[in-house]
Amino acid sequence: MRLFILVFLLHVTLIAGPKNKLYQLYQEGNYKKACRLGMNNYPQYTRDETFISLYAFSCLKADYIDRLAVPISALKYSKEARSNAAYFSIILMQKKLLYHALIDHYDISMLNLPTTQHVLSKVFDYYTKDTNNKDSNIFHYTDTNDKRITYKLYIETHPHIKKMVIEVFHDKILFARHLYW
Amino acid sequence: MENSLFSKPKEVFLDVVNAKDYIQLDSVSTIYQSLKDSVKKPLKMILLYGRPGTGKSMLLQKLYQDLSKHQKVIIYHTPLVDEKEFLRSLARDVYAYNTDSEINFTRFNELSNHYNFDTIPLVLLDEAQLYSSALMEKIRLLSDSRKIKFVITLHKTEKEDIIAKEHFQTRIWESIELKNSSCAELKIYIQKKLMKANCFDIANMFDDKNSKLIHSLTEGNYRYTNKLLFSLFHILHWYEEHQPSKVNYQHVSNKIIEMAALDSGFINA
Amino acid sequence: MLNVQELERQWFRYKLKSYIPKIALFTLLVILSIIVLLFFLDSNSSSNNSSHISKVSSTPTPVSEEKKSVTKKTSATSTPVPLHQEEAVAVKKKMNIQERLVLQPSLNFINSLQYMPEESVQKPLEKKALTKEALIKKPTTTKESELKIVEHKNIKPVIEKNTQLEPEKDALVLVSQKIAPHTNFTINVQEEETDIQDVIKRFHNNKNTKLSLFVAKRFYALKKYKYAYNYALMTNNLNSDIEESWLIAAKSLSKLNKKDKAISLLTQYIDNTKSVQATMLLEQIKNGSL
Fold first, then answer.
1. Taken in order B91, B93, B94, B95, is the CA torsion positive or negative?
2. Which residues in chain C touch residue A15, judged by CB atoms under 8 angstroms apart?
3. pLDDT value at position B165?
4. Is beta strand B149-155 parallel, antiparallel or unpaired with respect to B122-125?
5. Is B154 helix (H, G, I), strand (E, B) or coil?
6. % pLDDT > 90, chain A
7. How many Å apart are CA B2 and CA B8, to the nearest integer?
8. Structural domain boundaries of chain B?
9. Mutate which of A10, A53, A108 to test chain C, going by most C C-beta atoms within 10 A?
10. C37-66 in b/e burial notation, b at 16+ Cβ within 10 A?
11. How many whole angstroms separate alpha carbon C249 and alpha carbon C262?
12. How many CB pairs under 8 A join B and C?
């Protein structure tokens, strides 16, 4: 009985409300879970820009770029929120453009958009500035700020959809793998 | 009002040819001097021409006054259009030959042969454009005989130009042109005329703007100027009598000048 | 006969007539200048419009199979206009010269994330208070006894004002050992929760690390290790030099069965500071003796 109550108490303490839970998940680095939590509880926090911002950053870190659409439209009441909304919108647009360019061979070399420090923005910039033939399937880019970091960009075919992959290498060692579709 | 300030200036500008009223102006003086010199030359005829009101009659009168002291000079202000009357007058005035009968040209020539003078008599003919062509021819013949020297004045019109050319171009004669005065000269003319009549205050009332306006209205013509200024002082005289408050004794307003021009017909309202 | 009045009237008419050509000329000049000015302004505005149109767009339109084109935006409208390839190249060159706008994210909103007791949280707390009362029977202590114990237990060299309650905790523990187990006493958990909330509110206002550290310690004492960890982390964010908050954070992680994280946190802290207490705690966590 005591054990049951203790477990129950622990569970209860662990719940602690969606907002705090979200913060907790974010701090733990459990971005996918945090993004899902934010999405599911968004109707309760439509005017809470702190919640929405946190959930948006979680989705961004989880590479769920398309899920930024709702926060982009909702973040508008404070300066910081608007700034973050612009930031997210750039990344979303760049992801869409790059995906379209890789699969459909759409020419985006003319574009000159605002950019960010996000890996997707960096690879997008390298791709648009690349004057080489874009017929190849795999693209390699070296980070201009740190020559030890390289990026590999390619399309991976899955059963139902093609996915865009960005692999980040540090001294030729795979450091991160981002999947977008 | 007899003691009006403007009654005397009004009289000054009466259009009367009087040698005493001759105003010495630089350009006119030069012309007059050349006229006097020309008379001394062995010329048969001197032509003095210019537009009406440029001072031909005045110059002629002045010449008559100056030369009559030294030699025989006859002046005819108004032309004697009748040839016989002209010759009779000429015989009487030059040769003191009085007759009631007509004198023809032959008879006059005979008369002229009888008389000798130290200096050839000088006959001044004003308004010579009124003489007939036949008479002008006779005058030409008389001048050819060197018995009489003629100084004739002629209005410079197109018709008179032709006469001058046809009748006299083959003769040795001199022509002197009189022109309208300039703006500055006109101002001097007005002021000198007034100062000669001791109207110093009135003379000081005229400034450059006034003289410029008068010159534009009269084109520098002395006769027109006399006429305009006569009318001007006439109006000022009226104001002095009826509305003295409107009279400005320091300066002549252009309004009064324009009113005088309207009165004289220089401006058509 | 001189009629001066009539002359005056005539003069007035003459003057009016003389001014008519001057007025007409002036009017003509004014009209001409207005026309010239309008013409000039019109030519300026048309040249400005053409310069707007030549600016680069930001979004492309869907492409046909034959020809790809880049859209352009005017400053006034948002509808895209097709642009020739040559113009696009020229525009691209122009844009390359210009600096890129780099957007940065802002995470300042996290500072506003405070412990807000929600309805789902409050109910379990109340239950906890009741069960505690049932389970834990501790004698109520008088203030005098507390004070006595405080004198004995005053080991730590640095005692902060906010930690006045701490001796009470120790006193409670000691008293429980002395007093017979059959004595009934209760702990009013509700009052402590209120106190913590007051402190939290004060921390929210002034961001005092001492307050956040106190809250972390209180939660740790109340075995609310999640909240203890959170507030320890907040303290570290505000001031990373406070050792106690690092220790509380590590202890909380350890209590939450996240030993690995606790060890890595302490290791990192020891690498930077060479703290003895942190080293001791690390040993305890590794041994499992915490």
1. positive
2. 120-121
3. 60
4. parallel
5. strand
6. 58
7. 9
8. 7-18+181-264, 26-178
9. A53
10. eeeeeeeeeeeeeeeeeeebbeebeeeeee
11. 8
12. 29
Instruction: Give me the amino acid identity at B186.
Output: L
pTM: 0.41
Q: What is the ipTM of this complex?
A: 0.75
Q: Look at the block and give the residue holding tokens 């007035």.
A: C12
Q: CB–CB of C14 and B262 under 8 A?
A: yes
Verify whether the Cβ–Cβ distance C109 to A9 is below 8 Å: no
Chains within contact range of chain C (3+ C-beta pairs < 8 Å): A, B
Q: Which residues are CB-neighbours of A85 under 8 A, at least 6 positions away?
A: A71, A72, A73, A75, A76
Confidence at residue C134, expressed as pLDDT on a 0 to 100 scale: 45
Residue type for position B125: L
Q: Find the mean pLDDT for residues C173-184.
A: 46
Q: Which pLDDT tens digit goes with each residue over A50-96?
A: 999 999 999 999 999 999 999 999 999 999 999 999 999 999 999 99
Architecture of domain B26-178: 3-Layer(aba) Sandwich (3.40)
- Interval B123-145 mean pLDDT: 84
**CB-neighbour burial class of residue A120 (10 A; exposed 0-12, middle 13-18, buried 19+):** buried
Note the pLDDT tens digit of each residue in B219-260.
888 888 999 999 999 999 888 888 888 888 888 899 999 999
Largest CA distance in chain B: 70
Residue A39: CA count within 13 A, CB half-sphere: 16
Domain boundaries, chain A: 1-77, 106-181
Interface list for C 9-68 with B (CB within 8 A): 10-11, 13-15, 17
Q: Do C101 and A114 touch (CB under 8 A)?
A: yes
Nearest to A50 among C101, C109, C224 (CB): C109
> In this complex, do C10 and B238 lie within 8 Å of one another by their Cβ atoms?
no
C chain contacts of residue A19, beta-carbon cutoff 8 Å: 113, 116, 118
Residue B234 to chain C, least CA–CA distance (Å): 8
